[in-house]
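Priority: medium. Attachment 1 of 2:
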């Protein structure tokens, strides 16, 4: 059985429904010192770790070999720290940079204070530590983020400072024309 979807308004007098597309923030919307909490968290599985580790050709036994890992000070395999970093940044995308980033400019001060284990749930938050308009790219600006990942116990497991080139809010041509006509 197939269903057809009526895309016309039920009430012919009503204006079309307002549409909102999920996006990140424009350069202009970031405020230094603001903390963004990214939810939901992400529970890391053994399959996540093995797949990421093998896809990236990282043959570190601590990530792949349970027997070897059992003999280490950790007593079990640990999650690949590059997976942790990728997940940390990934958790921030929908809220901060989805569709509004031009480029990642670089990462610095990356630390992993505690290991991530299979079954841990990662939660991320980001602080905007700096922003400035681009000197060479009109309509764009550089935003510096400090991303922090915590596990389900609240332990910090990763911190990364990242610089991004972000788009400024697009100029609304209709509003701009109206302002010129009616100063």
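Attachment 2 of 2:
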């Amino acid at each position: 059985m197939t269903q057809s979807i009526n895309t016309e308004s039920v009430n012919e007098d009503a204006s079309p429904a307002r549409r909102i597309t999920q996006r990140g923030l424009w350069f202009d919307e970031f405020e230094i010192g603001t903390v963004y909490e990214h939810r939901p968290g992400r529970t890391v599985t053994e399959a996540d770790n093995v797949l990421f580790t093998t896809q990236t050709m990282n043959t570190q036994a601590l990530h792949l070999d349970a027997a070897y890992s059992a003999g280490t000070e950790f007593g079990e395999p640990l999650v690949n720290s590059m997976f942790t970093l990728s997940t940390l940044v990934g958790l921030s995308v929908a809220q901060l940079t989805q569709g509004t980033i031009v480029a990642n400019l670089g990462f610095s001060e990356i630390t992993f204070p505690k290991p991530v284990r299979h079954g841990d749930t990662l939660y991320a938050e980001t602080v905007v530590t700096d922003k400035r308009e681009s000197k060479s790219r009109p309509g764009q600006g550089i935003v510096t983020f400090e991303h922090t990942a915590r596990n389900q116990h609240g332990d910090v497991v990763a911190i990364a400072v990242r610089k991004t080139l972000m788009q400024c809010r697009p100029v609304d041509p209709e509003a701009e024309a109206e302002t010129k006509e009616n100063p």
